[in-house]
Amino acid sequence: MVYNFSPGPAALPREVLQQAAEEMLDWHGSGMSVMEMSHRGKEFMSILEAALQDLRDLLNIPSNYKVLFLQGGAIAENAIVPMNLAGLRSPSGQPRQPGVADYIETGSWSTKSIKEASRYCRVNVAASSAAEKFARIPARADWKLSKDAAYVHLCTNETIDGAEYHFTPDVAADTNNAPLVADMSSHILSREIDISRYGVIYGGAQKNIGPAGVTLLIVREDLLGHALPSCPSAFNWKIVADNDSMYNTPPTYAIYIAGLVFQWLKRQGGVAAMEARNIAKAELLYGYLDSSAFYSNRIAADCRSRMNVPFYLRDDTLNETFLAGAKERGLLQLKGHKSVGGMRASIYNAMPIEGVQALVDYLKEFEKKQG
Ligand code: PMP
User: Fold this and answer.
1) Assigned CATH for 14-267
2) Residue 80 and residue 117: Cα distance in Å, rounded?
C-alpha cells in the first residue's frame, strides 16, 4: 500500500484506475479502447456528454456558462486568457483601458501568469505578497485595482507556495464590472464555489480532475467573441465553444478518465462531501505541524492551502534521510518544489484521510528519532 503525495500529475482514485483497466480493451462492448474511437462517433460523444453533465452537476454550473475541454495546460492559458479577453469592452460599449488587466500575485504560479500575460496586454499587479515570500493572500482592502481593467486574474490555490483563497473577492464596484479570471488548477472540485462570481475559471486536469493533457475552461457566455485577431483558432474560446470542444481533436482518453473521476466524485457525495473531508485532512496535518517545534509551515493560518501543504524540517540536512524513510513506508513524492525547498504534501481529493494519518504517524516517529 502506498500513498502518493505528488503535486501533479497526482494520485487518481483507485476505483477509477480499476474501471479504466477493465474497460481498456473493450469499452462497453464496442470492441474498441476509448483511445481508438473517433471523437465524433456516438460512443465517444456519449462519454463527452456524460462528463460535461456530471461536471455541471458537481459544480452547479449556471446555464449561461460554457464548459470547454482544451489542450496546452494552465501554462498555455496564461497567454490564451489575455488573447481572448484583452480586447474586452465594458458593458456601456466604451473600450476599457486598452489592454489593461489586473493581476494579484500570490506565489510562483500567479507570477508566471503575470510574466506571460505581459506579452499580450498591459499588466497591473494590483497586489502582491512577494515581499513576504507569498506567506499570505493580500487582503482585499489593499488591492489597487484599475478603474476599467479588462479582467482581474487570480490563482486561487498556489500549488508550490501553499496559499489558498478562502474568500471570493468582489471586484466589480472598483473595476466597472471587470470579470474575475481564476486559475483553479490545484483546487477545483475540492471545495464548493459559486461559479457565478467568476467570468472565467481554468485549470489543468492532473491534480483533481484526471490525467495530464486536458485543460478545463468554464467561461461566461458574454466573454466569448472578444479574442485578438492573432489568437490561434484552436485557442479562441468562441470557436471552440461553437464547435462543442471539437474544433480540433480533443484529448479523448484524458476526457474519458476525467468523466470516471466525476462519477466517482458523485458516488462520494459530491463536492460538499469532498470539502468536508478535505477540511478534516488539512486540520489533521497542519494541527500536527503546528504542535511540533521540529517542523514548520510558513503560511498565515487563514491562507493555508487545504490541497498543498509545504513544510520544513528544523534541520534541513535531514531532508534526504526524511525522504528515504518516508519512501520505505510507502509515503511517496513528498519532496518540496526546488524553488522553495523543504517538503510538500499534496492531499487532493483522491488522498484518503488514512494517507494523511500515515504521514502524521511518520512525522511523529521521525521527530522522536531525530529531534
Ligand atoms: N497553475 C497552477 C496553479 C499549477 O499548479 C500548475 C501546475 N502545477 C500550472 C498552472 C501549470 O499547469 P500545466 O503544467 O498543466 O500547464
Assistant:
1) 3.40.640.10
2) 9
pTM of the model as a whole: 0.97
pLDDT of residue 98: 66
| Residue 112 beta carbon below 6 angstroms from any ligand 1 atom | no
Q: Distance (Å, rounded) from C-alpha 117 to C-alpha 123?
A: 7
Q: Give yes or no for residue 239 CB within 6 A of ligand 1.
A: no
- What is residue 371's predicted lDDT score, i.e. its pLDDT? 73
Q: Does pLDDT of 71 surpass 60?
A: yes
pLDDT tens figures, 220-256: 999 999 999 999 999 999 999 999 999 999 999 999 9
pLDDT value for 94: 62
| Alpha helices, H only, the chain | 14-23, 42-59, 73-85, 108-117, 172-175, 237-242, 252-267, 270-291, 319-328, 353-370
CATH architecture, domain 270-370 = Alpha-Beta Complex (3.90)
For ligand 1, what atom is nearest to the CA of residue 76? Answer: 16
Domain boundaries, the chain: 14-267, 270-370
Whether 165 lines ligand 1, by a CB cut-off of 6 Å, is no
Task: For a ligand 1 pocket test, name from 6, 153, 186 the mutation site with the most ligand atoms within 8 angstroms of its C-beta.
Answer: 186
